[in-house]
Amino acid sequence: MSAAEDMMELHWLFDMLQHIDVGLVVLNEKYEIKLWNSFMENHSGVSSSIAKERSMFDVFPSINSEWLQHKLDNVIALRTPIFVSWEQRPHLFPFNSYRPITGMAEKMYQNVALRPITSADGTVKFVCMVVYDVTDVATNKESLSNANRKLDYLSKTDPLTELHNRGSLDGTLQSTFERYKREGGKHSLVMTDIDFFKKVNDQYGHPAGDLVLKTIAKILGGSIRKTDFVGRYGGEEFAILLPNTDAAGALFFCETVRKKIAETKIKLPNMDISVTMSFGISEVKKTDQSKSEWLSRSDEALYKAKEGGRNQSVVSSAT
């Protein structure tokens, strides 16, 4: 190959390095910039003439210098490349996303490859940083993850009250029951419903009934501990699971909530109304063969509370 052809090939190579759609940076052992291609110029706003011969950390003081220096040193010492995914670190360089209208990210997501450069004498004194713009991939994956989380939330949530739904209750109750069979402990289940709820719908209309359900749900949700569970079982009936709580503790909880609900004024467009609730409580027993038997005892206690005059809490007497 002639010298002219060698020069032409070198020119082509240099032109490709400058205009390739990835960032290329070459650093020496002192982290000084030796190569800064047009991708880096365009996205950083820092020209090659300004960047070259300066420390990377002077040009980008926001970069975690200790973290990056450790990786660069390892690349040189071990003569092996290191890859940093956007999932580990969304970006190394704080570049703005150049798709602000159609994109979902303010900053460019980046994959970064750190590769050793071997000199003619076999030593490694330089590292090439290859910066890939993966914003589209990252935002699409995050959108899918967000959509899946939303679907999972919706599948477990009652749309009116925003409490857990019946399916979520069944799963949580089953796992609690299985844990009890393995480890023992004291766990209580409360079934509760709104007294004379049909009269609320008949007298004031279904929008008023929905408002009552939302108000009750807010009170119940705001009364439990983080480890507790409350869900809408169906219609005007709710379930409350109180782990690590015996029947006496559950009764105290129910009485506190019952009184709070009875004292609450629910504001309708033309008036305020009040409702009461009845509570049935059962503590899981060794004789329970399934979660259904445990739930049935809570249901029976709720039935006794309603038969006994409503607006009261009853503990299951079954053993």
From TrEMBL:
Q: Which Pfam families match?
A: GGDEF (PF00990)
Domain GGDEF span(s) in chain numbering: 185-318
Question: Which InterPro entries does the UniProt entry name for this protein?
Answer: Diguanylate_Cyclase, GGDEF_dom, Nucleotide_cyclase, PAS-like_dom_sf, Rev_trsase/Diguanyl_cyclase
Reaction(s) catalysed by this chain's protein: 2 GTP = 3',3'-c-di-GMP + 2 diphosphate
Q: Which Gene3D superfamilies match?
A: 3.30.70.270, PAS domain
Under Enzyme Commission nomenclature, its number is 2.7.7.65
Q: What class of enzyme is it?
A: transferase
Which SMART domains does the annotation name? Answer: GGDEF
Q: Which CDD domains match?
A: GGDEF
- Family matches, as NCBIfam families: GGDEF (TIGR00254)
Full protein name:
diguanylate cyclase
Q: Which organism is it from?
A: Marinomonas pontica
